[in-house]
Amino acid sequence: MTVVDTFPHRVVENADMGIPLPDGTRLSARVWMPEDAADHPVPAILEYLPYRKTDGTVVRDQGMHPYFAGHGYACLRVDRRGCGDSEGLFDDEYSPQELQDGADIIAWIAAQPWCSGAVGIQGISWGGFNGLQIAALRPPALKAVITIGTTVDRYADDIHYKGGIQLTENIGWAATVLSWFSMPPDPAIVGDKWRAMWLQRLENTPFLAETWTRHRDRDAYWKHGSVCEDFRAIQAPVLAIGGYLDGYRNAMAALVEGLEAPVKAIAGPWGHKYPHISHIEPAMGYLQEALRWWDRWLKGIDTGVETDPAYRTYVLDSVAPSVSLTERPGRWVAEPEWPSPSVRPHPIALGSADIPFDLACGRSCGEYFTFGFGPGEFPGDQQYDDARSACFDFDPPPGETVLLGRPRFSATIRSDRPAAQLIARLCDLRPDGTSALIAHGMLDLRRRDSMEHPHDLPVGEDVAVTFDLDQCAYRLPKGHRLRLSLSSSYWPFVWSEAEPVHLAVTDAQITLPIRTGAEIPWDAPPPESARPRRRRVLRRGEETKAWSTDAKGRSVLTIASDEGEVEDLENDLIATCTLKEVWTLDERDPSSAHVRIDWTRSMARGDWSVRTETSTEMRATATGYDISYHLEAFDGEERVFEREFGATVPR
User: Fold this and answer.
1) Which of 41, 226, 415, 638 is the most exposed place for a label (fewest CB within 10 A)?
2) Cβ proximity of 320 and 430 under 8 Å
3) In this structure, what CATH number is given to the domain that contains residue 89?
4) Residue 527: inside a domain, yes or no?
5) DSSP letters of 167-204?
6) pLDDT digits over 424-471, tens only?
7) 454 and 363 in one domain?
8) pTM (whole model) above 0.90
9) Cα–Cα distances in angstroms (integers) from residue 255 to residues 30, 62, 145, 153, in the given order
10) Core vs surface per residue 599-616: b (16+ CB within 10 A) or e
11) Are residues 414 and 480 in the same domain?
């Protein structure tokens, strides 16, 4: 990482610029801009998040926004309503209120004397999602978007449901949100009203775990904010970026294929991080690439982005599977068009098999999100899961094979139960004997015809099934073989069906996206950053992840994370955060799955200290899910708030 200290413009910073919304709510923005912007207005770049600008994203923000500001932009990092240092109440992710607030923020920015009237929006994950969704509202001043680690389909390709199957990340994310948004605003920003704002937030905490579990079909709740419902609504140019080692692998290609507005995509070897601060090498110079995008669409400078390849992708080399990756060999290539005429479908007939029902299958899956927080995030050797699946081993086309796109699985399925899941994993069978995951896909078989209107499988009858695996870019050396592994459960990645199921598969086929012809290399710029934030580690943390068996013979996965204790030397905040997850399953009973997730967060400055403790549980039953929250908040050692939530949601 190259740290850049000298910029064309001298930058000034405001830690708390108030943005008034039409209903009188004040949002808090941290702002960087050229010191002469009042006399020489500049375009603006917005990052709009719930993740607490004063302590949550402060390190990341410091390395990025001053860089853009130094190149002639006003950069605003805004806390969304009811989060961080902003007034109001949080209701849900990507709610109509959040998106309308975003459009109102953009209009306010464009009207300021220091702004030229042109605004761009950027963000990763939540900020990547709402950037696209706000763009679909077409606020007049919004001229460009950069979206990272995102999705176009909130239901079938997000952390809630995948292929219509409820992900365990659904409850994991609900627990995380409960903890994140339970903390108060910073008294140094909002003053003496911090405690009243905090208590009001706590009293109005939404029970999102129930909401997200109750909406089990792709109904209007999920269609809201799913930009794939109408790609034409987005008219601003979009740069889409993401990583093949992230849970969000599919949006880059989907946006290039779906948008009519100018659009380019970059898919790299990253997890859930901005690419210039990736914990997996090689990182990429995101700031330079973003600056080219902003300069063209916000300043009208010809930077050549319009003639960039449609899809720039890092093709992963085959390596022995490791749960703790730090580097992924491969090379960058460019596809001038996408879909690429150089990628041809290559169908391979696989035959028939019976799929065992084995609840131990899934231990090698890795995490949905890979943040680089500790060991064990990535998929390991797939042989453990392969032994508990129906496997088809086959040869790819002769010579070196490059897979680029989404493999497609099709088959005829017969089930002895009306409800069943099917999980497909495409693996690289390496000469060293390991099985490395290339891509996976899954489908709730009741949703084989519709994610919105499921219908039971006809017991004992044949049904046709087709679904895509995730996007991949993978180089398979000569001499390697491929394996397609099929299973009917995948714990702890997804919640299993309530009953064991026997599936018989006939006429199975995998269609591989094979790239042929000469490659066009692309040189990704090296990462740069503005001056990093000054911090001091007071106590180092650690993360552990381990499987065990309890006294009742149940399998137990325990994940413990301690982020240590860190002092911010620029605002004097001392923060701590710990997490413990315990996932339990009696592998003889699919309706026995249970998880408990405990978070503790604290902040302190001088004689001021606050802490929240949250506990989230979800227990499967034969007919539904029992879900509960417990939330406590402390001002010093005084408990100032306690609340419990509970609900039973049918399957």
Assistant:
1) 638
2) yes
3) 3.40.50.1820
4) no
5) BTHHHHHHHHHHHHTTSPPPHHHHGGGHHHHHHHHHHT
6) 999 999 999 999 999 999 999 999 999 999 999 999 999 999 999 999
7) yes
8) yes
9) 30, 29, 12, 11
10) bbbbbbbeeeebbbbbbb
11) yes
